[in-house]
Amino acid sequence: MITGNMLVMFIIGFIIFTFYIVGLLYAIWWGHSSQREDMLNDPELRDYYNRYPSYSKEKKRKKGSQSRMKNYFWKKEEMD
User: Fold this and answer.
1) Is this structure's pTM higher than 0.85?
2) Is 52 helix (H, G, I), strand (E, B) or coil?
3) Of 2, 29, 52, 55, whose CA is between 20 and 30 Å from 69?
4) Mean of the per-residue pLDDT values for the chain?
5) Domain around 41
């Protein structure tokens, strides 16, 4: 059974644990937002990304092997 002292200790421990987790999440959020702000305001990084634009993967992507499709139709025509 849980006695009165055990319940009080559990509640106090839970409150401390809750404050710890909230503080940890806030520290992670604050660090992430301040790092992002520093990166956006850094002139060297801004110049680098303006000099080398990012390319989307859609432009580089091909729809299957073109040689395989050509060979498939070539063999199909040859067999007829």
Assistant:
1) no
2) coil
3) 55
4) 78
5) 26-51
